[in-house]
């Protein structure tokens, strides 16, 4: 074992400690109250040591959000590699995203903040690039489902949108609904019902619009809940992340 290897491992462990501490402080004190000096103090390091890892608080937040993003890869892989129809695999990807959100809502709130210009625009080019690279495996998994759908004939011949453009549609739906549902008072369940059942209705309407087979009737709530529950059980061995109707 070389001295360089040992130092690299020590550096990585120290960086993880800083990120763990930042996550704990965000959960305890709130995102806007996070201070670099407090992180260094809690970890019992000089603040200069912290800045050797992260040039700014923005870089630290981007790094933390990037690490959190990796929690989604395993669930996305389950959905993408499941043996079911390609359309149901896309729905399972949306379910994977929702499962992570339900289990770790603070990760989504951090990601929302990081993608604002006040953080993303102030972060270094290196930290932004590492964040984008961390998302690439997720994008490849989703785009791979669309490519398989073309090969299998589940999408109409000559469908105009390339895979990476086609899959932006479901992503926009999921991101938009997560954003609305996480802000207290923006959505009225008495009018729209459960927001995540509504999300999957919209997702099926979108996939129908693509002509993605087999087509599905999003207006059939019972069938929608059966599919959602079955995918949660068969793909993730998990309960449905929104309440299904009996």
UniProtKB/TrEMBL annotation:
It comes from the Bacteria. Transmembrane segments: none annotated. SUPFAM superfamilies: Homeodomain-like. Residues 35-54 bind DNA. Keywords: DNA-binding, Transcription, Transcription regulation. Residues 12-72 form the HTH tetR-type domain. InterPro entries: Homeodomain-like_sf, HTH-type_TetR-like_transc_reg, HTH_TetR. This is TetR/AcrR family transcriptional regulator.
């Amino acid at each position: 074992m070389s001295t360089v290897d040992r130092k690299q491992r020590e550096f990585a462990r120290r960086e993880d400690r800083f990120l763990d501490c930042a996550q704990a402080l965000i959960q305890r004190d709130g995102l806007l109250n996070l201070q670099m000096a407090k992180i260094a103090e809690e970890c019992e390091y000089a603040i200069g040591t912290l800045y050797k890892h992260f040039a700014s608080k923005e870089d630290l937040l981007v790094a933390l959000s990037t690490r959190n993003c990796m929690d989604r890869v395993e669930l996305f892989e389950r959905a993408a590699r499941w043996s079911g129809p390609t359309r149901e695999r896309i729905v399972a990807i949306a379910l994977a995203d929702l499962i992570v959100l339900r289990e770790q809502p603070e990760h989504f709130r951090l990601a929302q903040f990081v993608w604002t210009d006040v953080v993303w625009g102030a972060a270094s080019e290196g930290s932004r690039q590492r964040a984008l690279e961390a998302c690439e495996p997720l994008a490849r998994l989703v785009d791979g489902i669309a490519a398989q759908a073309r090969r299998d004939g589940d999408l109409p011949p000559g469908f105009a949108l390339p895979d990476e453009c086609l899959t932006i549609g479901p992503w926009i739906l999921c991101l938009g609904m997560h954003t609305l549902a996480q802000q207290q008072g923006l959505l009225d369940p008495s009018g729209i019902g459960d927001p995540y059942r509504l999300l999957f209705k919209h997702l099926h309407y979108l996939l129908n619009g693509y002509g993605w087979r087999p087509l599905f009737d999003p207006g059939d709530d019972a069938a929608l809940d059966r599919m959602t529950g079955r995918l949660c059980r068969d793909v993730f061995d998990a309960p449905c992340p929104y309440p299904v109707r009996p």
